[in-house]
Design a protein that fits this description.
By secondary structure, the chain is of the alpha+beta class. It has helices at about 10-15, 25-30, 90-95, 110-140, 185-195, 210-220, 220-225, and strands at about 45, 75, 85-90, 145-150, 155-160, 205-210, 235-240, 245-255, 255-265, 265-270, 275, 285, 290-295, 300, 310, 315-325, 330-335, 335-340, 350. The protein has 7 helices and 19 strands.
């Protein structure tokens, strides 16, 4: 019995089996839960501010004092649409594939299947890198500006999503650069931690750009404290993290806040072909894992072989298109992701610390 692996149903099953590319910002700070996939064109972004009020003392004869329920902010957003595709031509079927034996005896059908599988992996990784960029932008700006394209060359409208009203309360400015003799590395980071603590949020990670990480390692006070045998201030033990392009430098204590120090230098190629880092080299950020979530809206399309629209609520939705006059077919992998914070400003970002 022949099985059509290019049906949307079976291609989606194949996509589910693809080992996802590990990404730092998305996996560590914006995980996706079962409730984050919406069978709708829009998703709900809701978060509460910390409730730090105390219960009142009550006279016994008074009975009790009613307490208001905590309010929360809720917004409705239409997630942006991402849909990279790749065309399979007759010439592709005639070429030797990457890693294929020179004397391979593959049929065109077998080669087509192998190419399609690799194409879906490549497209999935491109979407993952875009999601990683989105997560980084949300943490850096508390917003995200996205340039839409009509085709590969023509720019369309810009989409802007922001998680604040007039001004955002997620930034911190250092008075002196940390590589300056008058810089206050420990004082600045502790102040950033207290900004989160005042919102009822925890501080666990200090994210550093590559230049900021080097400067911190060279600060004399850091080296002196870590060499003190009488007190435990932290440890500097650089190692490669599980995320590509991210290194765990060590752990330091900032006025009682014990933070993981992470050097982030992984990069991407932007729409203009320039290589850029996801996190600025001279910046720093204090936050905690799971500070946000990655949500997905549904994708509506006409599946191959059908004449009516179908709706799919999944992180990735594949589609096959056949152009018989040109003897080509293309595989498209679509997604509608949206990265959002779980709380009001759960990250404190400081630019140009060195």
């Amino acid at each position: 019995m022949n099985i059509d692996i290019l049906s949307t149903y079976r291609m989606r099953a194949i996509v589910d089996e693809i080992v996802p590319e590990t990404s730092f910002f998305k996996n560590r700070y914006f995980p996706t839960g079962a409730v984050d996939i919406f069978a709708d064109d829009k998703v709900l972004v809701e978060y509460r501010r910390a409730d730090l009020r105390m219960a009142a003392f009550v006279e016994p004869r008074a009975g009790d004092i009613p307490v208001d329920r905590r309010g929360y902010e809720i917004s409705e957003f239409a997630p942006p649409y991402i849909a990279p595709s790749r065309i399979l031509t007759i010439d592709d079927l005639r070429k030797r594939g990457f890693g294929e034996s020179i004397l391979a005896n593959s049929t065109q059908a077998e080669r087509a299947t192998r190419i399609v599988l690799q194409d879906m992996i490549d497209l999935d990784r491109r979407i993952t890198r875009r999601e990683e960029w989105m997560c980084a932008q949300v943490m850096i700006t508390n917003a995200c500006e996205m340039q839409q394209y009509i085709d590969a060359e023509t720019q369309g409208e810009k989409l802007r999503i922001r998680y604040f009203e007039e001004t955002s309360d997620h930034t911190y400015t250092v008075a002196k650069k940390w590589d300056d003799v008058a810089g206050k590395f420990f004082g600045d980071v502790e102040a950033m931690c207290w900004r989160l603590a005042q919102r009822g949020l925890t501080a666990a990670d200090l994210i550093l750009g590559s230049q900021a990480a080097q400067a911190v390692s060279d600060i004399e006070k850091v080296q002196r404290l870590l060499d003190n045998r009488n007190m435990t201030f932290g440890t500097l033990a650089p190692r490669v993290e599980e995320y590509a392009g991210v290194a765990y430098i060590g752990s330091l204590n900032f006025g009682g806040f014990q933070l993981n120090i992470l050097n982030v230098l992984h990069n991407y190629v932007d729409d203009n072909g320039a290589t850029k880092t996801f996190f600025p080299a001279t910046s720093a950020m204090v936050t905690s894992p799971g500070c946000g979530r990655m949500m997905y809206g549904q994708v509506t399309q006409i599946d191959y072989g059908n004449e009516i629209h179908s709706t799919h609520a999944f992180p990735r939705v594949p589609k096959l298109t056949v152009d018989q006059p040109k003897d080509t077919r293309s595989i498209r992998l679509a997604a509608r992701p949206l990265a959002a914070p779980n709380h009001y400003c759960p990250y404190i970002y400081a630019a140009n610390v060195v």
